[in-house]
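User: Predict the complex with D-glucose.
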Amino acid sequence: MKPVPVNEQQALVSRLMSACGGAYSPETRRKYFISGPQWAAAYEGHALFHAPTRPSIGFEDVIRHYGELGIGYWCTHDTDVIPTEAIGKQQQADIVGRIKAELAANNVNCSMVTTETFHHAVWAAGPAAESPEVREYAKYRVRNTVDIGHELGASFAVYWPGSLGYFVQGAVEETETLRWYAQALNAACERDIEVAKRLGRPTLKHCLEAKPFEPQAEILLPTSDAMLAFIASGLLTHPEMVGLNPEYLHELMWGGAPRAALARALVNGKLFHFDINDGYRLKHDVDIGVGLVNPLDWLNVLVLLRSHGYNGPFNLDYKPPRTTSQFGVFEVSFPTAVDRFITLWEMAGEALTDSIIREATDALKAGGAFTGDPHDAAAIVEANKELLTLHELIAHRLVQILLGLHRGRVISLPVLG
Ligand code: GLO
Ligand code: MG
Ligand code: MG
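Assistant: Here is the predicted structure with D-glucose placed in the model:
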């Protein structure tokens, strides 16, 4: 192939994208509760060892692109859109006013707001630092985010306490830090009750998001299960207002099974919000687009959520790769992430109604028509032994659904010999 001059590269990307096919229309995409974060679209490709590869982009362009793509919801950290020094000032009110206008003009809604409590130097010792000034400031910031959330019409507030932990051991006392962290959440919930009452709006759903490591070396609430224990600890004044925002990759990072973590959140009634992305076990937070690494696991995750009627947001908390240009972010990265999600969600629906999976599952639950001695282990084994083969058959069927083999897709084989 001849080298492709830079002025022809966008056209090539667009042509190959449409050749890929399978894209949903913006109207179809809008039917799903999919949210796009400001920070995901505005990610410049930087990291500890990586300089940015993309220019910065403001909320106006992000919201416009989301609207065009059919991503119906937008969410943001306070400081993604308001400089730290403008928080709580007239400049904040002006920016929030401009955001409202931009959302309305593009038919996009704000679903969630979140407070940045990890990046700025003020959080060097975390949002629940020893210093009382830092803790008061943390309360101020989360209260202010609640105000912004109500102003923008959000229903969720998320808390990722990324720097609640330590690098060196022994300097912080964990129980004290957790107590202090709870005080900030209590301040947010109390403010929410006040504001919601004044405005005649429902209170926000406050969602804790765990990540096992990064940016701190050791994290005090590293998993969704730790968060559940924290919610039930008695430290929160309004535990009923607080639930979880699990992130798929964050559960995978510690070696857990994301679907099992979600199941534990579901049985606790605490699955409020869900950050969707992909990546690898026991590696750092690579935030790859949903379904690019573990599509089969994703199918299974969505089968679980569909079967439990989960109706919260699916938040595209991923990072367009550093190799993707800013044109590519909206031409390839976002539409493909959304469309893979929708496809997997619809496949999950197929799996739930698949007659083979259904009959196999029912048969497993019906058991082996056993009438012998209920204390005879060997007889119980004997009575069920052919049924248990169905476990593998169900797994095979799910792969068939994923690959389209259940619809007669066959791969022709080369003639050997
Ligand atoms: C980082 C987190 C982060 C949060 C965000 C929401 O690893 O996933 O993106 O989701 O701060 O509050
Ligand atoms: Mg996240
Ligand atoms: Mg992540």
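Residues 262 and 271 are 7 Å apart (CA to CA).
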